[in-house]
C-alpha cells in the first residue's frame, strides 16, 4: 500500500509542535511508560493503524516489554500477563476509542476501575494519550500511511 500523501502532521509545522507538547504532557504525569505503550498499541490495533501498531510495538519492546505481553495485547482480557491497573487502562482505552459502539461510550464501571488505580492527574494523562493515539490513527488511516518495511 502506498500513502495517499505526505503525513499531514509533517506538512504543517505548527502541528508537530502541538503533538510534541501533547506527548510531553501525557508522558510527564507519572503514568508508567509501559501502560502508555499498551494503551497506544491497543487503540492502534482497534483502529487498524499499521504504522502506529508497528511503531508502538517496537517502542514498547525497546522499553523492555516482552514478546508474550505484546502478542497478547489484542486478547488482554483472556491473557494472564497484565496487572489489574493495566487491565483498567486497556479497558478505558478501548472504550474511549470505540465511542460510537454503545450509547454510554465510557460506562461508569470502566471509568471507576481506572480511577481505582490512577489518581486524577494520571487518568488525565491516559485519556489524553488515548485521544492523541486516536488522532495519529485517524491521520495515518485516512492518508494510508504504511508501516515501514523492516528487513532482517
From TrEMBL:
Pfam families: CMD (PF02627)
Membrane-spanning residues: none
The organism's place on the tree of life at top rank: Bacteria
InterPro entries xrefs: AhpD-like (IPR029032), AhpD_core (IPR004675), CMD-like (IPR003779)
Annotated ranges, domain Carboxymuconolactone decarboxylase-like: 13-95
Protein name as annotated: Carboxymuconolactone decarboxylase family protein
Amino acid at each position: 500500500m502506498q500513502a495517499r500523501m505526505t503525513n499531514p502532521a509533517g506538512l504543517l509545522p505548527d502541528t508537530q509542535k502541538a503533538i510534541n507538547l501533547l506527548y510531553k504532557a501525557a508522558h510527564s504525569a507519572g503514568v508508567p511508560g509501559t501502560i502508555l505503550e499498551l494503551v497506544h498499541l491497543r487503540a492502534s490495533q482497534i483502529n487498524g493503524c499499521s504504522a502506529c501498531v508497528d511503531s508502538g510495538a517496537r517502542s514498547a519492546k525497546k522499553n523492555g516489554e516482552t514478546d508474550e505481553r505484546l502478542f497478547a495485547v489484542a486478547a488482554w482480557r483472556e491473557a494472564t500477563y497484565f496487572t489489574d491497573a493495566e487491565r483498567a487502562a486497556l479497558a478505558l482505552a478501548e472504550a474511549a476509542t470505540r465511542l460510537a459502539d454503545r450509547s454510554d461510550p465510557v460506562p461508569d464501571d470502566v471509568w471507576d476501575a481506572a480511577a481505582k488505580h490512577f489518581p486524577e492527574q494520571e487518568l488525565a494523562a491516559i485519556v489524553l494519550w488515548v485521544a492523541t493515539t486516536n488522532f495519529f490513527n485517524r491521520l495515518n488511516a485516512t492518508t494510508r500511511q504504511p508501516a515501514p518495511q523492516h528487513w532482517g
